[in-house]
Amino acid sequence: MKIDRRQALLFAALAPFARGGLAQEAPWPTRPIRLVAGGVGSVSDIRARWIAPRLGEALGQPVIVENNGAAGGNLSAAAVARSAPDGYTVLMYHQGLASMNPHLYAKPGYDPLVELQPVTRFGHGALLLAVPTALPAQSVSDLLALARSQPGALNFGSPGVGTPPHLASELFIRMARIDAVHVPYRGGGALMAALLGAQITWAIEGLTSQLPHVQAGRLRALAVTGARRSRALPEVPTMAEAGLPGYEYEGWTGFAVARATPAAIVARLHAEISRLAATAEAREWFAQTGSEAGTMTPVAMDAFVREEHARWGRFIRETGLKAE
Q1: What is the pTM of this model?
Q2: Angle between the 188-196 and 207-215 helix axes, to the nearest 10 degrees?
Q3: What CA–CA distance (Å, rounded) separates 91 from 280?
Q4: What is the pairing mode between strands 116-132 and 291-292?
Q5: Domains of the chain by range and CATH?
Q6: By C-alpha distance, which of 89, 80, 81, 92 is closest to 38?
């Protein structure tokens, strides 16, 4: 039978419906996924590199970590917010990007409540106040006495303006009523190098990045920022125990994608990350740094981010902090 051009076009149009239904697209993912994290050596980078190979194995595609801690992480968040909403570009989210930078920067370049879809939280816990071992301060009281004897002479570092360690430190100096200079660095690796080299007086940063240096005797741990002591450093007091009652701060990291990403992809990412977070391996790895792996559903995470955004917005307005 001879088939003319019109019939050929008709057969081509009907082909997807052949054999009883609409042909399905290949399931996500079908190519490598980019996981955009903060600067090398930052808490978000360390956690991203832990989960990347495991998540890649679970999804059947490589998960490649890309680092960008510039502008407090604003560039990485903006890049993910403006990426194609297809699940192939994922952000290692944290407090700074979700709830601090939008209030600190006049033009952060993205709106976390409009352009980013939270997937889940992944890792939360107290931070650690640490000093170089060469500094003559054996406790928080010693550090505060030193700061009060030299107003404006001491400095503290952070991985960048608007990052959780920056705001945790601002909260510390305001509650302690001391005067100190903020020195922002481009990521956690640069911050740790400066602290180890005694170029700054102290830093409040995640246990994930500071603990190895404390254990090696290169840094002295003065206090943890949580409500209770860390299992990783049980001998180190909380800020409240160390003489600053009422101080409490807990940092977190998580995952986000572009807001229009299909719900099925968000659900798959959440399911695989949650499964990995529930493993004994994850619980042990987080416990070693005094943190917990605990996750949240996308809906709960979205509500949590909005609460954090409002809370830190109030703090930043009250203190008059600005990044520019």
Answers
A1: 0.80
A2: 30
A3: 25
A4: antiparallel
A5: 33-124+251-319 (3.40.190.150), 126-224 (3.40.190.10)
A6: 92
**pLDDT tens-digit map of 115-149:** 999 999 999 989 999 999 999 999 999 999 999 99
β-partners of residue 93 are 254
Tokens of 256: 């986000």
Judge whether 90 and 35 are in contact, CB under 8 Å: yes
pLDDT tens digits for 83-114? 999 999 999 999 989 999 999 998 999 999 99
Residue-level length of the chain: 324
Q: Are 130 and 222 in contact (CB under 8 A)?
A: yes
Helix (H, G, I), strand (E, B) or coil at 81: helix
Q: Dig out the tokens for 135 from the structure.
A: 């500094």
pLDDT in tens, 23-54: 445 689 999 999 999 888 888 999 999 999 99
Query: CA Rg, the chain, in Å?
Result: 23
Let me know if 168 is exposed, middle or buried by CB neighbors in 10 A (0-12, 13-18, 19+).
buried
